[in-house]
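REVIEWER CHECKLIST
Item 1: Sequence provided? yes
Item 2: Single chain? yes
Item 3: Sequence as submitted:
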Amino acid sequence: MKKILVFGAAGFIGTYLIDELLKQNYHITVSDISPVGEKYYKSKGVPYVQIDITKNEDFIQLENESYDVVIHLAATQPANISSGNYDPKNYVNVNVIGTLNILEFCRKNKIGTIIYASSHRNTQGLWEKIKEPIRESLGRSIKYSGQYSIFSISESAAQDCCLYYQEEFGIKSIIFRLPPVYGYGPHTEIFFDGKPIKTGFQIFIENAKAGKPIELWGNSNRGRDIIYVKDVISAFIKAFNNQSAKGLFNISSGYKLTLKEEATTIANKFWGGSGTPIIIENPEKDNNIEEFVYDISKAKKELGWEPIYSFANMLDDIIVESNKKRYDYLLEKRKEMFKSDL
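Item 4: Structure as written out by the authors:
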């Protein structure tokens, strides 16, 4: 069994990943900056090292161990940043300098593989231009305005750093390009343009449970590519067990989930009212949905991976996980994050 070190382990994807790795009996060390994460993992008996990846000296805590694979999930991203805490330097410090520090740690300790999970946002300029699923070979097209611009710039630089260390030092770098990742835990509230908002996904679910009409704005046939967190986790496991895979991979559903399909499926799964679900369309109101779909043929061919959860299957599993309450830690962690920004 490989020895795996995970940075950013106290986040949404990290929590699901560690849970699955433990089930499969991998040797794991987890790291995060979060003291809440430390309490959670120590209660599960998982080795935890609190590290600020922007501080090179913090990595000394890890140097007595050897690792086969590093999984890099640590990032600063707009959904977690209030307007009061916005500072473009934070994106550079965490996403670029932090990634460089992790890569240097890999080089010094002869760790052969790094998997870096990053957002799809640096393809934003392609979304309206490309009328077919976006392939890895089409590269990037950063939008240099809006809340995702400096984030995309910093993550693109981090990706390039990974590829540089691959060519210069032989550290195999696998980069995941992820669209919105859904699951039980993080989709209650987010920051949008620095202000806290309840997500549309959460609003749809709450209205359905309460038997209230679900209102669809704009063109309800517009849609986007999303993926369930457990499909992402299976991609990580495929990737670090693959001897030849390297470079960039789209890890997505490869399917455009329309607003209408999303709302209808949620209504059918969660409806708490009498009779059939009520869905009201208001095409005159803008829904601001940006359409994008990704080509996943490379991941299928080179990783032997493909998603298994449809949106309906995902909702079924979210219901199961919410009843088990084993990921309630993520809800509490998110509440604490929003409290700290008041």
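Item 5: Key structural point noted by reviewer: DSSP finds ten helices and 15 strands in the chain.
Item 6: Recommendation: ____
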